[in-house]
Amino acid sequence: MDAREDQKESKVVDCRGQVCPMPIGNLAMACRNVANGGMVVFIASDLGACSDVKAWARMTGNKIVSIEEGKGNEITVTIQVIK
To answer: CB–CB of 11/33 below 8 Å?
Structure first.
């Protein structure tokens, strides 16, 4: 079994309070350490985060599984890492 198989559990990237471009940069960095098929939960409060994460996923080939809106501008996006 590949050692990376153990990394398929969800990873949380909490970027609340950060402004562009930090949330997407932190998301991209975190996804590098997640095995193919693994999940990343991205939480952000930046106004542009929702459109930014959609564009990032489209450009990188990662899959958005769900987007949930919270209080204020907060969003929680679950992403499946596709490598």
So the answer is: yes
* CA quadruple 8, 10, 16, 20: dihedral, nearest 10: 30
Rg of the Cα atoms in the chain = 12
Q: In whole angstroms, give the CA distance from residue 27 to residue 49.
A: 11
Q: How far apart are CA 56 and CA 71, in angstroms?
A: 23
Task: Encode pLDDT of 15-50 as tens digits.
Answer: 999 999 999 999 999 999 999 999 999 999 999 999
Cα separation of 17 and 49, whole Å?
11
Whether the Cβ atoms of residue 56 and residue 40 lie closer than 8 Å to each other? no
Write down all domains in the chain, each with its CATH number in brackets.
3-80 (3.30.110.40)
pTM of model > 0.90: no
C-alpha distances out from residue 74 to 5, 43, 52, Å: 31, 7, 14
